[in-house]
Amino acid sequence: MAVSLLTQEVSDLCLGKPALRCLSVSATIGDALSALKRLRETYLSVWTCNHDHDPDASFSSKSDDCVCIGKICMVDIICFLCRPDCLKSPTTALNSPLSVLIPRSLPGLVTHLEPHASLVEAIDLMLEGAQNLVIPIQSRRNTTSSRKKLLLHNKPSSNSTLHNNREYCWLAQEDLIRYLLNFIGLFNPTPINPINTLNVIETENILAIQYDSPALAALPLISQSLINHTSVAIVDADGKLIGEISPFTLNSCDETVSAAIATLSAGDLMAYIDCGGPPEELVQTVKDRLEERNLGAFLELMEEESIITSSSDDEFGGSGCHGRSGRLGGYSARLVRRSEAIVCYPWSSLVAVMIQALAHRVSYVWVVEEDGSLAGIVTFVGMLKVFRERLKSMI
């Protein structure tokens, strides 16, 4: 059984995964914002090719330069709009090229991998810094042919799913951890050991900010947590964990949250992005502070989004919560967590922490002491390191 796991191909982890929706790197940030709302996707992949301008590009065998170079989500746009010049002129900001959101200093965050590659190869790439692995979807030839014939009669949009005559999906850290959990018995006794005995608790460079600090001070931490697949801890003066600002939660909001980040404290921002929607007094506080700072253009954007969201609430029977328009109650119909942090203790077992993270659809769990003080964080990357070492011992 251990030998079978070592030789497992990543294509087995791709079964049932949907084809990637895409945007061309030549698109604008406004295009990405519109697509995220219209398609109700958490992420969109970004490709070097542009099918909008060449209706046959999707089907050309010579389009070898069609490569996925990154991914875009609502948090990327929110962080970008928090810049002072963007707050002054959000319309101009949304006309900026999408390429400004792709971190050039981290080119390996999204990496292509062939479907016959092994599970071990996938784990190694994740440990080297890849956040998503782009895998060609293997399908029956007649199915692919029928799909291509159908699409040939319709010009592919910027959200086409065909590249180099193939469709792709991607694997994330969560997919690998979930798959390894199916074989957890092979790794005994490691999974039942306390995490403080496995060198898996990260204690350095923890992304944290105090409750009363300006939320804007957390902006670089939010951007980093998005790259690291973690979160920003909110702590009190004694270092006790109060809550978090999670990219997972921010991703279910709309672009006007940028104004809240720019004007509120970290603690108030937690309440603003909570899944029940922001209290009216906080919304009014944000609007008042925008006026004080002569940011009327962004205030107009908030008012426009509020009208759109209210219309969507009427259509979908929502409760009028703040969030992304076109979603049930102003929020995505997908799972949306509240701002309470998911925590474990130093003596929690590795398998318990794995299950806890997977159950809450996060790739990390905060580690706290008995008094609630923040002790560190356990991430999927840390877990993968542990399992990779055990896999080496099986060879």
From TrEMBL:
GO terms for cellular component: cytoplasm; nucleus. The keyword Repeat applies. It comes from the Eukaryota. SUPFAM superfamilies: CBS-domain pair (SSF54631). Keywords: CBS domain, Repeat. This is CBS domain-containing protein. It comes from Quercus rubra. The lineage of its organism: Eukaryota, Viridiplantae, Streptophyta, Embryophyta, Tracheophyta.
